[in-house]
Specification:
Rossmann fold, 2 domains, 4-stranded parallel β-sheet
């Protein structure tokens, strides 16, 4: 009789070990498959290093570029774009930048050539292109003592310079945002959909901001204010206000000019003198004390653009009531 062979089942402990080994092998396979899949996917986009002239532009750039960009402003919030000089460290850092977003502030006309020389491959984009620029408004007095308001060109400035404070117009920022988006699409075509979707969202935010500010000034009856520095021309235009500037590009007015300005404020019952963080407040306080006006400090260079614009509107409207 032939022998009968029986298959012996492995002990329970052996089966457990086999199951554990099978599970471990499965995990390893899954991990390797995942690694291969990750390698097959498109790599993360390279972050674009970009520079802008002033802090509010960082808000515009990051609203559109988000995690695909890294933006640095040349001018710090406490500095004046009229007199700013880039540091050697900033000039060196420009060597890595792909884009520079200029906006038209005074220091650019002096330093832009050197900025470009620091990185010839860096593309300079004029974000104010397409904006309806206002002439730089100044307050002056004729020999007869009568006051007058004039653009820089009509009051003797041969170059007819334009007002660079275009970021203080929400409507103008919409144009700047489109210019920024177009620059990103040109530099990084693969991100077109990403940039354009973010642009649409930002434009919606700007539209809501514009309506909010308009509502803030809707019930304000007094529409004139004195400004130490003429930074508020676009803001005043957009919301039916009138700024009466004291000085131009940080230059202090003469005693005679101050006297005429005080007379003007008294005759027109102007009760607000606006100063900004970046300039001396001495002249503003002289005027305010003479006419019994309130001095209001506003900061046009705050990096938190949306909240700052609402804060500017609320502060000014409250003072003008």
């Amino acid at each position: 009789m032939g022998s009968i062979h029986t298959i012996q089942k492995p002990p329970v402990e052996a089966r457990v070990r086999l199951l554990a080994l099978s599970g471990l092998l499965g995990l390893v396979c899954c991990f390797l498959t995942g690694v291969c899949s990750a390698e097959d996917r498109d790599p993360a986009p390279q972050v674009l290093d970009v520079f802008a002239s002033i802090p509010p532009q960082i808000h515009f750039v990051e609203a559109i570029g988000k995690e695909r960009v890294s933006c640095t402003a040349m001018v710090d919030p406490g500095e004046s774009p009229a007199t700013y000089e880039p540091t050697p460290k900033q000039i060196a850092a420009l060597g890595k930048a792909r884009l520079y977003f200029r906006i038209g502030v005074p220091f650019e006309s002096i330093w832009m050539e050197r900025i470009q020389e620091a990185n010839p491959d860096m593309r300079v984009v004029d974000t104010a292109e397409g904006v309806d620029l206002l002439p730089m408004k100044r307050h002056y007095h004729g020999e007869d003592g009568d006051h007058a308001h004039s653009s820089a060109k009509s009051s003797g400035d041969k170059d007819g310079r334009k007002d660079p404070h275009v970021w203080l117009s929400v409507e103008a920022v919409k144009t700047q945002a489109r210019n920024i988006c177009n620059a990103f699409v040109t530099e990084d075509p693969d991100g077109r959909t990403f940039y354009e979707q973010n642009l649409d969202l930002f434009l919606d935010d700007l539209g809501r901001l514009d309506r909010t500010i308009a509502d803030i000034f809707a019930k304000v009856s007094s529409r004139k204010f004195i400004a130490l520095h003429p930074a508020w021309g676009y803001f005043a235009r957009d919301y039916g206000l009138e700024q009466i500037p004291v000085e131009l590009e940080g230059k202090q007015p003469s005693a005679k000019s101050l006297t005429h300005l005080i007379q003007l404020a008294q005759s027109e019952n102007i009760r607000v003198v606006v100063v900004q963080r970046q300039f001396s407040t001495a002249s503003a306080r002289v005027i305010a004390e003479a006419i019994g006006a309130r001095v209001v400090q506003l900061d046009p260079l705050d990096a938190d653009y949306m909240e700052n614009m609402k804060r500017i509107a609320r502060t000014l409207a409250e003072a003008m009531k």
